Amino acid sequence: MNNAYDCLVVGCGLAGAVISRELAEREGKKVLIIEKRSHIGGNTYDFFNEDGILVHKYGPHIFHTNNKRVYDYISRFTEWRDYSHEVLANLHGKLIPVPFNLNSLNMTFNTEKAEMLKKKLVSVYGMGTRLTIAQLRSETDPDLQELADFVYNNVFLYYTQKQWGVTPENIDPSVIARVPVLISQDNRYFQDEYQGMPSDGYTSLFEKLLDNPNIHLRVNTDANELFEINENNMFFEGKPFNGTIIYTGALDEFFNCKFGRLPYRTLDFLFETHDMTWYQPKGTVNYTVDEPFTRITEFKHLTGQNICEKTTIMKEYPKAYAGTEDEIPYYAILNEENLGLYKKYEQLTEKFSNFYLLGRLAEYKYYNMDAIIERALILADKIIYDEKGND
């Protein structure tokens, strides 16, 4: 057996880093994290560009949660900048809040009509309700039908076609539900109790999270080149390994896509730095009726770097994931066929009692940051409990 490490963790994003810290700190396990990229932090990785602006390399990440355990845990490793994310939709040059809410309603329709629609929405659903566009479109009232058609055509339809390559009707309902219609005047994109940005950035947070003498890290390392499966045995660097393995990478790629590649959507990012203080009024503006990109993020809104005379923005261009070297699988395409394919890969891991799947790619699911932190904490609880129960 390879006795150098008690636990191998593949991937140094939130899932891998949190569970590594838990097992190293609570149980004193010697943990090796294997990371294919050249840096820690996974898709939350941020860095200062040549103009001194802190940017998120893989798209904007805003921390938000209602889970106190998650908030308290991650707060051990960072101070917080008080920040509530607000998003605008650009409708042919007119900016309205999204998710679509009562403020959006007042900006879209004349005063009399907006007030009439507001009264009907509050009467049917109640103030403060979150509803999906599908719920709104099921209404029989002609005024609410008109509102539903407007929101669907101007906020959801083209944006969804760009993001997923299909119309909303062909997307898993859980995906559409992530962008609700709000019967409120709250312009925040998230309504969670705890919201903010790490005051020194996500990379700094990860450096503190991984600062434990029992955690060792290898970057620029492809785990597939180190692991080998032979019948019912797992080998690491040519030697049998019977310790704990937590895998957070793409499961189909771990098995060399032997059943075919799992479908994802990926993103191309275009960064631009402009010689101006601000480019847009909020951190993110969605382009829901035109433009080939889905949204523009201006990072200074997120980070609070108000003294910078320049500003950096990022445009996002979604496309199908082909598995090339420069592409990253971001969003699993959830349907019955794809979940069936995933299940075939998952079944290959079931014979290994010490092999755990954790995270968006390993589980072929969508997780917000707080949800994956919670998943990692719960899995650590389970591993520790099971091991103590077997002592």
UniProtKB/TrEMBL annotation:
EC numbers on record: 5.4.99.9
One annotated Gene Ontology cellular component of this protein: cytosol
Gene3D superfamilies the UniProt entry points to: NAD(P)-binding Rossmann-like Domain
Keywords: FAD, Flavoprotein, Isomerase
MF terms in GO: flavin adenine dinucleotide binding; UDP-galactopyranose mutase activity
Cleavable signal peptide: none
Domain UDP-galactopyranose mutase C-terminal stretches: 155-366
Cofactors named for this entry: FAD
EC class (word): isomerase
InterPro entries reported for this sequence: UDP-GALP_mutase, UDP-GalPyranose_mutase_C
Iron-sulfur recorded as keyword: no
UniProt record similarity statement: Belongs to the UDP-galactopyranose/dTDP-fucopyranose mutase family.
Protein name: UDP-galactopyranose mutase
